[in-house]
Amino acid sequence: MHAPLSPPCHGVVPVRGNRRRREGYQLGPGDRLRVAVYRHERLSGESTLDATGTLVMPLLGAIPADGLTPRELELEIEEQLQDDGYLRAPHVGIEVMTHRPFYILGEVSRPGEYEHVSGMTLVNAVALAGGYTYRADRTGVTISRGHCVREATAATKVLPGAVIRVPARFF
């Protein structure tokens, strides 16, 4: 029996204020970021998002970043620096230094946690895990991120934080 699938997991989702979240890489706990505030080296640096997906910055304190794209986080930091009176026209850049891992479970030779590589597909992920076992149901593979569960094909993109489940087939 296959895992139940969630409703479509793409499109535009509302976020705080009048901004809207777009598809793209969404930040989450464990991502290591480089934050650059133009001409303000003391506000710049590297940091890892904590278990709740929060970034801690000088002057601003805790900034919720879980689920935001890097660009949305840049805008959020710029807005806070300006609204709180610290800078007049701040320019912020965010670079993701290290993505969080992905996980592969079930009928693969070496289930577990693996480092994410940009552009990774299901085929790449299964290869890292040593390939399918003889019992693997290759047509029932699912990938989940958060509450989103999708059926996967060989060409399905694997994003950081994804959980890949490879079920067993019954003869």
Question: What does it look like?
Answer:
There is one protein chain. The chain has a five-stranded mixed beta sheet, with helices on one face. Strands 4-3-7 form a three-stranded antiparallel beta sheet, covered by helices on one side. A two-stranded antiparallel ribbon has the order 1-2. Helices cover 12% and strands 29% of the residues. With 171 residues, it is of the alpha+beta class.
- Overall helicity: 10-25%
Order of helices and strands: EEEEEEHEEEHEEE
Large-scale geometry? elongated
The parts where pLDDT drops under 50 for at least 5 residues are: 10-21
- The largest beta-sheet arranges its strands as 9-8-12-10-11
What's the number of helices? Answer: 2
Number of strands: 12
Query: Beta fraction of the residues?
Result: 25-35%
Beginning-to-end CA distance, first to last residue: 13 Å
Radius of gyration: 19 Å
What profile does the largest beta sheet have?
A: 5 strands, mixed
Which whole number gives the mean pLDDT? 88
Category from helices, strands and their pairing: alpha+beta
Q: What is the topology?
A:
Layout: E1 13-14, E2 20-21, E3 32-37, E4 45-48, E5 54-57, E6 61-64, H1 70-83, E7 92-98, E8 102-106, E9 112-114, H2 122-128, E10 142-145, E11 148-151, E12 163-166
